[in-house]
Design brief:
- By secondary structure, the protein is α/β, with parallel strands linked by helices.
- The protein has five helices and 15 strands.
- It has a seven-stranded mixed β-sheet with strand order 1-2-3-4-5-6-7, with no helix packed on it. It has a six-stranded mixed β-sheet with strand order 8-9-10-11-14-15, with no helix packed on it.
- The two termini are 31 Å apart.
Length: 219
């Protein structure tokens, strides 16, 4: 039986990993008439009903090309939502109505999207300014075995130096008081039941980026 979405914070939920997106974790932010779905959860009846019960979807934000899944069209048709994706990856959604952005896009006073290329050309994060500041990072930053946020270099990484530069961008954009949590889009099993990475900014600041640049790709 499918597992239900679980609350990370009062108005933020994480779906179980989706096989169609190689085990990625999709999230849902409840904002009255401006609900945001981040990436594609499994398109089963339980998840569909959960989204309906929360008031539907206003925005479907794709954090990177690996978060698209097979049912973007059905999600848009079911909820009449807008699809938001960085402009370099919009071509992956032919025949669909999409909203694109270059570097940043503001969804509301508390929600904005930031382009963080490297993992993929259009890899982007969503910042939610509630609960001390929460950054949804897709696969740009994922937890290591100790549960700390790291950029992960794989054989499919688009551009490693750009990904490291995107970490620098985030460190310059926030301070400890405005970035307290990270919700990663993959490797969530390393969080060991925790919904988010706490003390997020401090852990980002501790990363040795020069050493990371020398990292060899993982398979």
């Amino acid at each position: 039986m499918p597992k239900p979405a679980r609350a990370v914070f009062d108005n933020m939920f994480a779906f179980p990993p989706n096989r169609e997106t190689l085990g990625a974790t999709a999230y849902f932010i409840v904002k009255n008439d401006a609900n945001i779905l981040l990436d594609c959860p499994a398109w089963d009846e339980e998840n569909q009903q959960f989204l309906r019960d929360q008031g539907g979807v206003r925005w479907l934000f794709i954090t990177h090309r690996g978060g698209i899944g097979k049912h973007v069209k059905e999600i848009q048709q079911t909820f009449g939502c807008e699809i938001l994706i960085q402009e370099q990856e919009a071509y992956l959604l032919p025949g669909l109505t999409v909203t694109t952005f270059e570097k940043e896009f503001t969804l509301s006073g508390a929600s904005r999207v930031i382009w963080t290329p490297g993992h993929s050309p259009g890899s982007s994060c969503l910042y939610q300014g509630e609960n001390g500041g929460v950054l949804f990072t897709g696969r740009h930053l994922v937890p290591d075995r100790e549960g700390n946020p790291v950029p992960l270099r794989t054989s499919k990484t688009f551009h490693w130096r750009r990904q490291i530069n995107s970490v620098v961008l985030l460190r310059e954009a926030f301070v400890p008081e405005t970035l307290q949590y990270i919700c990663p889009g993959a490797n969530t099993g390393f969080l060991r039941g925790k919904g988010a990475i706490a003390q997020a900014y401090d852990k980002l600041a501790q990363l040795d980026l020069d050493a990371l640049l020398q990292t060899k790709p993982q398979l």
